[in-house]
Write a structure and sequence with these properties.
410 residues; alpha/beta; Rossmann fold
């Protein structure tokens, strides 16, 4: 049986044509726990649709012969609600869980699964984290049952500052971030890593604001203007980035470049529009104009939903699970977790590896710039006519960071 996803390595592609898999025809339930209400509902809705759509693509032709079923549950971006949602998912038979919006909810899942899996042998659950990027989740809080598919905050900052250090115009940087673990880490690593690479750069502001609560960012933009900053670094996502960019455009803040983590996420492309062309950069493991099988999925998703599929780690989740199912001839989370450790394959962003020591995916990162779509990069974001075009690619070793994880294996 051939695994038809072209971007994945031969280890995923090759499966014996005559092999009979114990799990063939089985339905694998995956619980998706993220916000479907509040200011971040649009992001959550997009990502739930992404998981459902990609699962359908894999159901047509995955080498393991299983059927994926996505159970979507609103966690209201709350750690407490996440814990309740996880219990509900397990009651419905889910042995795999995915989550990505907010490191607080991610930590709640890790804590709950550490207890559940220890107390319930034979009913273990595996957590695939597709976007929660607090480095602590694969360092001091690391867990055998947790696998992170995104690059963490420190990895992205390594790539971003490597790019920024070579821009002589970057002299005064303003930090604005959400007031929770990820935002704190963006601020911390920006200052630490930039000091090492460009000690002459000044940080002229460092603001933290409530997560998913601010509706008017004009007071923050006024502070940025007053500071004399030439650059802004922000890890904001969802409405917090869209409204920040909108306020900057409304105020005519057109002499400042924004360096972002999540510029392509729902709402931000529309907020940027033509006014932000050439002034917004993004560090990420993907962009929407990547070639290969992922591109076909992105195009088909757009046709079906008139929306962008910007969370490429969804593709990694199904690719890795499928390879693990084939390798182990099982969907048992215990066997699958062991197979995921150290897994290597060629994907849309180069050679990737699920590092065994901490379960942090090692992968290449792109720096992309907001520009008019066309030529080699025809797909635009949110029908704006503009897109993030790659200007630099960094191999995994550039952004790779050491880990303090002391993995406790069952």
């Amino acid at each position: 049986m051939k695994f038809a996803m072209k971007a994945v390595a031969a280890t995923v592609l090759l499966a014996s044509a005559g092999a009979a898999f114990a799990q063939k025809g089985e339905t694998v339930k995956i619980a998706w726990l993220d916000p479907l209400s509040g200011l971040m509902a649009a992001v959550g809705t997009n990502q739930l649709k992404s998981f459902q759509f990609v699962s359908e693509e894999f159901n047509k032709k995955n080498a393991a012969g299983v059927k994926f079923e996505i159970i979507g549950i609103d966690n209201k971006l709350s750690p407490q609600e996440t814990t309740s949602a996880l219990r509900s998912a397990m009651d419905q038979g889910a042995r795999y869980v995915v989550q990505g919006n907010g490191s607080g909810p991610a930590l709640a899942i890790i804590d709950a699964l550490e207890k559940h899996n220890a107390r319930n042998p034979g009913k273990e659950v595996v957590f695939l984290n597709y976007a929660a990027v607090d480095p602590d989740l694969t360092n001091s809080k690391c867990s055998y049952w947790h696998f992170r598919l995104d690059a963490d905050t420190s990895m992205k900052m390594e790539a971003l500052t490597t790019f920024m250090k070579d821009i002589p115009e970057v002299k005064k940087v303003y930090l604005i971030n959400q007031n929770y673990s990820h935002g704190h880490q963006v601020s911390k690593f920006a200052k630490e890593i930039m000091a090492r690479k460009r000690p002459d750069v000044q940080f002229v502001g460092d603001d933290l604001h409530p997560l998913a609560q601010v509706r008017d960012f004009s007071p923050y933009i006024a502070k940025i203007k007053q500071s004399g900053a030439d650059s802004v670094i922000t890890g904001n996502w969802g409405s917090d980035l869209a409204l920040l960019i909108k306020a900057a455009n409304d105020a005519g803040l057109n002499n400042v470049n924004f360096y972002t983590y999540y510029g392509s996420v729902t709402g931000s492309p529309t907020a940027m529009g033509a006014a932000a062309a050439g002034r917004v950069y993004m560090v990420a493991y993907a962009h929407i104009n990547l070639p290969g099988e992922l591109n076909k999925i992105v195009v088909d998703y757009k046709k079906k939903f008139n929306d962008d599929m910007y969370t490429g780690s969804v593709y990694h989740a199904f690719s890795m699970l499928t390879e693990a199912f084939v390798k182990t001839k099982s969907t048992d989370p215990v066997k699958v977790a062991a197979a995921l450790e150290g897994m290597k394959f060629k994907s849309f962003n180069g050679e990737v590896e699920m590092r065994k020591t901490d379960h942090q995916l090692q992968q290449g990162l792109f720096i992309s710039k907001w520009e008019k779509a066309g030529g080699k990069f025809p797909l635009d974001s949110e029908s704006t006519g503009y897109t993030f075009t790659p200007v630099k690619y960094y191999e995994p070793f550039v952004a790779s960071t050491p880990t303090s994880c002391q993995m406790k294996r069952p």
